[in-house]
């Protein structure tokens, strides 16, 4: 399992864009993790699935509500990663009104999640291999803090805790 002091895996996530922008076409666009984190401070949180109850009602909204406070604490970007495809993450971003505040990144085949060792097998519940729920502060691609939840819990990976760590 990834730990404090480790570098994020050299994988590629996908991000859905609603409108064309500099270097980004409409639709899914690759986000090479190493390049995208270089020289930046990232508040990263991961969760089992878009549109799922705790993820939609508590986990993501906490980061959305605190986005300005994260920026004030020196965080360049807030990333939400889930083992979903880019179209689902794009729809969830639209539904959550997160544009300009959070980057909802798809790990469709769980390459990033497997490389971090933070998988959660929900096959018995019909969801297959997913990401565990966690948060981390990343500086220049290196993990500075890591908060991993026990299966089925939401106690240590919320926005308040990671924000305190970013300020600390």
Automatic annotation (TrEMBL):
<dbReference type="GO" id="GO:0008379">
    <property type="term" value="F:thioredoxin peroxidase activity"/>
</dbReference>
<dbReference type="GO" id="GO:0042744">
    <property type="term" value="P:hydrogen peroxide catabolic process"/>
</dbReference>
<dbReference type="Pfam" id="PF08534">
    <property type="entry name" value="Redoxin"/>
</dbReference>
<keyword id="KW-0049">Antioxidant</keyword>
<dbReference type="GO" id="GO:0045454">
    <property type="term" value="P:cell redox homeostasis"/>
</dbReference>
<dbReference type="GO" id="GO:0005737">
    <property type="term" value="C:cytoplasm"/>
</dbReference>
<comment type="function">
    <text>Thiol-specific peroxidase that catalyzes the reduction of hydrogen peroxide and organic hydroperoxides to water and alcohols, respectively. Plays a role in cell protection against oxidative stress by detoxifying peroxides.</text>
</comment>
<keyword id="KW-0560">Oxidoreductase</keyword>
<keyword id="KW-0676">Redox-active center</keyword>
<dbReference type="GO" id="GO:0034599">
    <property type="term" value="P:cellular response to oxidative stress"/>
</dbReference>
<dbReference type="InterPro" id="IPR013740">
    <property type="entry name" value="Redoxin"/>
</dbReference>
<dbReference type="InterPro" id="IPR013766">
    <property type="entry name" value="Thioredoxin_domain"/>
</dbReference>
<keyword id="KW-0575">Peroxidase</keyword>
<dbReference type="InterPro" id="IPR037944">
    <property type="entry name" value="PRX5-like"/>
</dbReference>
<feature type="domain" description="Thioredoxin">
    <location>
        <begin position="2"/>
        <end position="168"/>
    </location>
</feature>
<protein>
    <recommendedName>
        <fullName>Glutathione-dependent peroxiredoxin</fullName>
        <ecNumber>1.11.1.27</ecNumber>
    </recommendedName>
</protein>
<dbReference type="InterPro" id="IPR036249">
    <property type="entry name" value="Thioredoxin-like_sf"/>
</dbReference>
<feature type="active site" description="Cysteine sulfenic acid (-SOH) intermediate">
    <location>
        <position position="55"/>
    </location>
</feature>
<comment type="similarity">
    <text>Belongs to the peroxiredoxin family. Prx5 subfamily.</text>
</comment>
């Amino acid at each position: 399992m990834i730990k404090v002091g480790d570098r994020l895996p050299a994988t590629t996530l996908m991000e859905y864009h609603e409108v064309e922008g500099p270097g980004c076409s409409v639709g899914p666009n690759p986000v090479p993790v190493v390049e995208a984190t270089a020289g930046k401070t990232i508040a990263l949180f991961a969760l089992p699935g878009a549109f799922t109850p705790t993820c939609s009602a508590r986990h993501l909204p906490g980061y959305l509500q605190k986005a300005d406070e994260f920026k004030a604490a020196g965080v360049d970007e807030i990333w939400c990663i889930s083992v979903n495809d880019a179209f689902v993450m794009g729809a969830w971003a639209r539904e959550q009104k997160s544009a300009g505040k959070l980057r909802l990144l798809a790990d469709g085949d769980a390459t990033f999640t497997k490389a971090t060792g933070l998988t959660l097998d929900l096959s018995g519940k019909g969801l297959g291999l997913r990401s565990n729920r966690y948060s981390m502060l990343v500086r220049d691609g290196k993990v500075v803090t890591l908060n991993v939840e026990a299966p089925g819990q939401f106690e240590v990976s919320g926005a308040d805790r990671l924000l305190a760590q970013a300020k600390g």
